[in-house]
Every structure is written in structure tokens, then in C-alpha cells.
Specification:
The complex is a heterodimer of chains A (329) and B (233).
Chain A (H helix, E strand, L loop, with lengths): L1 H5 L3 H7 L4 H6 L11 H6 L3 H6 L4 H18 L7 E5 L13 E5 L3 E5 L6 H9 L11 E4 L6 H5 L6 E4 L11 H11 L5 H15 L15 H15 L4 E5 L8 H8 L5 E5 L3 H6 L2 E6 L2 E7 L2 H25 L6
Parallel strand pairs in A: 3-7, 3-8, 5-6, 6-7
Antiparallel strand pairs in A: 1-2, 1-4, 8-9
Chain B lengths: L1 E7 L5 H13 L5 E7 L5 H7 L4 E5 L5 H18 L4 E7 L14 E6 L6 H4 L2 H4 L3 E5 L6 H14 L4 E4 L8 H15 L45
Parallel strand pairs in B: 1-4, 1-5, 2-3, 2-4, 5-6, 6-7
Helix pairs in contact in B: 1-7
The structure holds adenosine-5'-triphosphate, guanosine-5'-diphosphate, magnesium ion (MG) (2 copies) and zinc ion.
One magnesium ion binds next to helix 1 of chain B.
Chain lengths: 329, 233
Amino acid sequence: MTDKIANFTYTRLIKEYPYAEDFFSTRELPAPGDEVLLKEYLEGIGDEELQDKGLIREEILPELAGFLEAMESLSSSTSISSLKIQGGRAKDGNPEAVESLTVNVGDIISVVGPTGSGKSRLLEDIECLAQQDTPTNRQILIDGNAPGNNVRFSMDKKLVAQISQNMNFVMDCSALDFVIMHSESRMVPNPTEIAHEILALANELAGERFTEDTALTNLSGGQSRALMIADTALLSQSPIVLIDEIENAGVDRKKALDLLVRNEKIVFLATHDPLLALMADRRVIINGGSMIRVIETNDQERGMLCKLEEADALLLNAREQLRHGEMLH
Amino acid sequence: MKLITIAGPPSSGKTSVIVALLKEWAGRGDKLSVIKFDCLTSSDKEAYEKAGIPVETGLAGNLCPDHYFVNNIGKGIAWAESQGANTLITESAGLCNRCAPHIKSIPAVCVIDALSGLNTPKKTGPMLRYADLVVVTKGDIVSQAEREVFAYRVKQAAPKARIIAVNGLTGQGVLELALLLDELSQKDRPDNDQMDNMELRFSMPTALCSYCLGEKRIGQDYQIGITREMKFS
Ligand SMILES: Nc1ncnc2c1ncn2[C@@H]1O[C@H](COP(=O)(O)OP(=O)(O)OP(=O)(O)O)[C@@H](O)[C@H]1O
Ligand SMILES: Nc1nc2c(ncn2[C@@H]2O[C@H](COP(=O)(O)OP(=O)(O)O)[C@@H](O)[C@H]2O)c(=O)[nH]1
Ligand SMILES: [Mg+2]
Ligand SMILES: [Mg+2]
Ligand SMILES: [Zn+2]
């Protein structure tokens, strides 16, 4: 790879590897002239300039090659067919009642239990593909096997997409720039286009609209959630999706859920909301840090779900009307 | 003696990560030791002492801690040996972003935190760029999307390094770090008793102007050695 790109012109490099563009600016190097061969470009940089910029001449092309290779491998997606949770121990140290739980692609599992019982903890265990090395001692198996460390800790080939309960944005940039950067890091072919789609979708979910140039850190809690959900729905290739309490975010939760589960995925949904809990095929009951039971949603409950949805629509409607200063009638 | 250099910006989580790493290794009977290189003060000593690890602190004063590191690492290894240690980890506060303590064929780690801003990977210089492993801490505080963007930026700046997420508070991820370091020590230096013939990965810039040596007076007359004029438009 290094030898190959040494004889590329800059134009050709960017044509074949559009994401190589930032490589030079990241190193404070001026972009090479369009028709200059990269090896000539490198020879043309002065020693002092390299020293100033903390660069080693012979390392630059191998680094570029390494970057391109890493990016290429990113674009392939991973598919799995099942996930198994091996029970660990409760907060009091006793073994978990549910010894194991297997979930297949296409399944939606809700996670319910009192506040503080350990719902978010269960999702975190899945997120880090715990191997008996978290406080719960649980183990997560993928397709029946313990995932290798390269899968567990790789920061770029994520099996798990997560919309967490305590989510903050800290980066100093606009919502649009951020989503473009995220799209780039995910190697999508048209980052700007998809970024606009994500923001449009986020605005559909959020109560109050925000503009594309709103600073990321100025988004309200609900808007941040909406953006995260839209971003995950449109960008994420991860086969496992974890959603922690979308109901409190003030976003349209039914729409959000539909967006997130539309593909063949494994979905875990921690919730206090009966509607969301019953939309799942099964629900795990958590108490005292332990999975105490797994219940399958039955037909009777599904019947109830219709009634709950009607009641919910009524509530939602009333809320919207009040929000817009209307009278209920 | 197994030597590992760990560097990173202030408060990026170096001490937290090292303490977690030491716990991981202490369990399997390794004899560990730490030297902290800093400028003026450092309270890291207590953190290591609390973990029961022999520790020395080297304060560089008005020298760059990385220059100070190279001058003293040989003696540091002798000290670690005198403590009966078989592993020496050095923690350096990366301050000037121009130098790095990383040595060829000695495992080199850079610790950087996910809260530190989008441009930090690019600004961190040789200490990140020429590390074998980049540890990203504080991922627990930010969204997954931001972690990904940050990791991408690190990858751009240091394409050949392995990036590992470690939570400095809980130690999550440190097992992977330990395993990767084991691999590196084996690959690079089956027997690294010898400090002779070791070479830095990146040449440290000369900082030999009169002000490096303590000059305070301002003016053309007092500027001796390597100086450079800024260009104004
Ligand atoms: N099996 C366990 N062993 C030890 N600690 C646990 C266990 N399960 C949960 N915890 C800890 O209990 C605390 C509360 O758990 P968690 O945040 O998951 O609750 P939750 O059900 O999500 O609550 P909420 O509904 O308020 O979001 C956390 O600090 C978590 O790490
Ligand atoms: N939330 C969070 N805090 C961390 C993490 N790692 C370190 N810290 C905190 O960051 C601060 C600086 O850490 P320290 O290890 O002293 O950094 P050093 O200066 O690089 O050695 C301390 O208050 C740590 O508790 C992490 O992964 N998550
Ligand atoms: Mg929770
Ligand atoms: Mg420290
Ligand atoms: Zn320096």
C-alpha cells in the first residue's frame, strides 16, 4: 500500500480515497499540488518544517497507508445471529435467578424494574460485552462464543449501538458539523447529504425544532436525545441496539422506536413505560441488580396494548394542545 | 527489566489508568515500580503508594519533563532494579506537545481523554503519533457518537496505533491494555535488560535559547542561541 500510494498524484489519491483529504491538514501540512506525486511532495518538505510539526519523513506514507487500510476495513459491516446473557450475581451477591437469556436477531426485549434496580447496568454489561469483569459478574456471548478482545474493545467496529440514559454532548461545534463528522467516521459515501437527513429526522422527533447551526452543547435534553436517535437510526450498522428510557426525553417515542427497530437487529429497551414494555416480545424483570424473571408478552397483554395506545394517544393529544396554548374540548 | 513509557496531557487519566493496570498485573505476581516525571509538583506519588507500588518522582523544574526523562531513565532503571522490580512504568506529563518519552522497541502508550476536544489528537504531537497504544479515557461521560468521532480523530493522527477505551474510574478496558502490552514486550524485546543502544522514537527539539536557561530580561541583547522571529502580515 505504501509503495502504491507513493506513486499516486494527490488528485488520484483523493479520487480513490476521499477521506484521505484530512490526513495532511491533521499534520498541519499544506495539501500537495494536484499533479505532484506523493513521494515527490514528501521529498519537497524541509527538515525544519518536519521537526516543527513533530513528523518523521519516512513515517508519513506508511501512516497514510495505515489510515487508508483501517478505513477500508471499517466499511465492512459485522452480522451476528444471537446474543446470550449468562447470569451473574445480584447486588447482595447471590446468584442471579435467570441463569441465562438468549436473544435472536429480530427480537425486541424490554427491561423493566423499579428505579435503581439495575436496568441501565444490564444494558452497560451488554454494551461492553461483559466477561465476568463488571460488578454483576455477567458474561455476554455472541453466537454462542465469548467475543475476542479485539471485538470487545475495538473503538471502531462496534457491535452495539447505545442510546444511553445519561447522555451529554461536550463537543464544541454545530449540530450539522458534528453529524457530518460522525458520518465521515462511519465511512458513509455522502456524509453531508446523510447529515441533513439526520437533522431533519431529529427535528421530526423533537418537540421544539432546532437549526443545523445550533451549537451541539446548546441542544436541550430532548433535542439531544432526538438527535442521537436519528443518528443511530440512519448511521449505525451495529446489529445490537440498546435504548435506555427514551420516554423521558420528550420525544415521540413510538416513532423513535419504529425507526430504531426497523432493520434486522437485536433490541434491548429499558423502560418505565407500559406501552414500550409491551411492544417487546419478551420482558426481563430486574430487581436488586438481578434478572429475576423473563416474561413473554401474551395475547391478552397485546389486547391491553391496543387500549393503552388509545389512552396514550388521548394523553399525547392533550399534551400537544396544551403545549400550543389551546383549550381542551 | 520490562520498561513501559506512558505519556499524555495533564489530567487525561494517566495515573488512574496506571493504577488500574498495576492492580491487573499485581494479581499475577509481577514486581512493579513507577517513576513519575513532572515539572513542578506532583501528587501522584500518594496514589501509587496507596496501591503499594514503589514510586519515585522526578521534578524537571524549568526543563522540559521529556528532556529530563531521557537524562534520567538509565538511573531510573537501576533504581527499579534496586527495588526488586521486574517492570518499570514511567508516567510523564506531556506538556510541550513537541517531545515524547517514547523509545524505539519499548512499549509506548499515550493516554488522552475523550472530553479534551476535537483537536486534541492532532495537537498532541509525537507523544500520540508515535505511541503503540492510545488509551482513550472518560468515554463514560460522552455520547457514543462523540466517542466514535474522537476515535476517528485519533486514528487520523496515529493510524498505526491501537486505540483502546479505558474507564479510569472503574478500570474497565484495562485488561485489554495489559494483554496488548504483554504482546508488545514479547515482540519487541524479549530481554530488555539492556538500556544501551536505545534510541528515542522522535528527536526532541532543541530548546536552547537563553530563556531556557533562566534568562528573564527581555530584549535583543539577551537573546542568545536558537531564536526565531515571528512573521507579522
Ligand atoms: N448485580 C449488581 N451488582 C452490583 N451493583 C449493581 C448490580 N446491578 C446494578 N448495580 C448498580 O446499582 C446502581 C443502580 O443501577 P442502575 O443505574 O442500572 O438502575 P436503573 O434500573 O437503570 O434505575 P433508573 O430506573 O433510575 O434508571 C448502579 O450503580 C449499578 O452499577
Ligand atoms: N469520568 C471519568 N473520570 C476519569 C476517568 N479517568 C480518570 N478520571 C478522572 O480524571 C482526573 C484526572 O485523572 P489522573 O489519573 O490524575 O490524570 P493524570 O494527570 O493524567 O495522571 C481524576 O479526577 C480521575 O478520577 C474516566 O475514564 N472517567
Ligand atoms: Mg437507568
Ligand atoms: Mg498523574
Ligand atoms: Zn519538550
